[in-house]
Amino acid sequence: MSNELKHRTGVFVNDYNFKENKYHEEEDNNIDRKKNGWYKNWIKQYHGDESSITLLLLLYFLQGIPLGIIGCIPFILSERNISLTDLSFFSFCSYPFSAKLLWAPIVDSIWIKSIGRRKTWLIPTQLLISIYLIIISTFINDIIPEEQIHGISINIKVLTAIFLPLNFLAATQDIAVDGWALTMLSRKNVGLASTCNAIGQYLGVFFGYNMFMFLSSEKYANKFFRNTPTHGGLVSFSSFLFFWGLIFGLVTILVLIFKTEVDNSIEEKKNDKKNEDGDEESELELGIGETYTTLWKIITLKPMWILLLILFTNKFSFAASDNTTAIRLIELGMPKEDLAMINVFLYPLQIFFPILIGKFIVGKNPLNLFIYAYPFRMIMNIVYSLFLYISSTVIQNGTYPYYIYIMWLFGMLINDSLQITMFLSIMSFFANISDPKIGGTYMTLLNTITNLGGTMSGTVILIIIDMLTIQNCIDKKTGETIGECKTSQAHQLCVDNGNTCSFIIDGYYLSIALGCIFGIVWLLILWKPIKNLQKIPREEWLIFKKKKE
C-alpha cells in the first residue's frame, strides 16, 4: 500500500497512502463493445483473474483495518483532553508506512521457496497481526478506560509502544501484497493492482475506523438499535480488536491452505515488446545490495534535490488545518461519531473526483495543477479557522445546529477536492520521470519521501500549536485564574473540580496564520523551480541511460 488512503483520524489525516493510481481513458475496442455489450466485454476483460482480484481486495481490505483502528485512537484521546504534544508523540505510530522502504528490499529478496516468495512474509505477518490484536484486546481497557475515571491518566508512551508494532506489521504486509499483486494478476490486468489497493484499503479503513465510531456510539446505538436507551455502545474497543484478530487469523489460514503462489506473468513477460528506441522497458529484478545502491543513485541525481525539497516542505502550509481541526472540533464538543459520519459522505469523492480530473493531469506539465491549487488550499486554511470560530460560538447544551454539519461537509468537500487534485498532479509527474528499468524502486522512493514529508509536518505542527497555546483554569464562581491547563492532567483536574479551562492564546489560529505566511513564501520561492522541473529532459531523471546508436 504505498498510498495510505486519506481518512480523517485526528492526528492521522494521513495523506492519501501514496500508491501510483493511473486513470486511463479507454478508447479501444468500441466496435466490439457495441456488438457484444459493455457488460460481456467487461466480464471478458477480467476472465481468469476473478479469484485473484477477489483475494487482492480481501488482503488490501485487511490492510486497512489496522490503519482504521490506529486512526480511532486520536479521537478517543481527544475526548479525554490529551495534550497536542502527547498526540504528536502518538503520531510516530504512522511512521512505518513512511519508512518501509528501509526494509522493503529485504522482504522482496529473501523467501522460502517451498512456501512462496510473497507467502513467506504474508502468512507470518498476518498471523502476528491476528495474535497481536487478540492480546491487545485483553488489556486495552486498562490503558484507555471505557469511562473517564478521575485520577487515571493515559500513558501516551505506553500506548505508542503498543500500536507502533501493529503499524509496522501492516506496512510489512503491504510490501508483500504489493509484490504478490504483480505476479498474481495476468499481465493484461496487472494495472488493476492499484485499483484493488484503493478499493480494498478504503473499505478496510471504513470498517476499522468509521464503523467502530458508529457501533461504539451510545448515541447511535440508542437511536437506531434499542427500544430502551441503555448506557454504552454496541461494541467496546476491546471486543472490536478481538473480533478483527479472529478474522485476520481465519483469513490467513485459508490463504495458507487454499492459495498457491503462481507467477501468472512469466509467459507474458517473454512477449514483452521493446519501445520505439529499442530498449526494453521491463523492470529489472535487483538484489538487496543492488536496491540500496540504486536508491542512493536516484537521490544523487542532479534534478532530484529540488524535487525532494518540494516533497519534504509543501505540506507545512496546511499541517495545522489538516491535522488538528478535527481534534479541536471534538474538544469544542462535537461528538467524534458525528464527525466520523460527516467523512462517510466524503468517500465517494475520493473515488469519482480523480476520474473527472484525470485528463487534466496527463501531458508534459502535470505539476501545473499542483501549483495552481496551492493558493486555494491556503485559502481553505482561513476558511477552516473561520468555521471553527463559528462552531465555538453556536454550540448549545453540548449540541450543534444542523447547519454547522452542512457547513463543515461543504468545506471538507472543497478542501478534499483540492487535496486530491494536488495528489494526482504530483503522482502523474512521478510516473513521467520514473526510470522504467527500476520503476517500482523509483516510485516507492518518491512516495516514501512524500509520505514522510506529510507525517513529519503533522508531528511538528502539533508540538508548535501546544507550545503557542496558553490555556488557564478559571474558577467557575469567581472568574479568577487559579492555574494553567497546559497538560492533560492539569486540564482534567480543573474540570473535575468544577472549573473551566479557557483559552488566552489559541495556538491553532496562530499556526494557521504561520502556515499561510510559510505557504506564500514557499510559493514565491519555488513557483519557478517547480515550473522548470517539468522542462528537464526525461533522460536527466534516468539511472540507466538509453544507449545512443
UniProtKB/TrEMBL annotation:
Pfam families linked: Acatn
Membrane topology, as annotated: Multi-pass membrane protein
Matches recorded under Gene3D superfamilies: MFS general substrate transporter like domains (1.20.1250.20)
Intracellular or extracellular location(s): Membrane
Keywords: Membrane, Transmembrane, Transmembrane helix
Transmembrane segments: 53-77, 89-112, 121-140, 152-170, 190-215, 235-258, 304-320, 340-362, 369-390, 402-430, 442-465, 508-527
Single Gene Ontology BP annotation: acetyl-CoA transmembrane transport
Family matches, as InterPro entries: AcetylCoA_trans_1-like, AmpG_permease/AT-1, MFS_trans_sf
SUPFAM superfamilies, sorted: MFS general substrate transporter
Any one GO cellular component localisation term in the record: membrane
GO MF entry, a single one: acetyl-CoA transmembrane transporter activity
Name of the featured protein: Acetyl-coenzyme A transporter 1
Organism: Strongyloides stercoralis
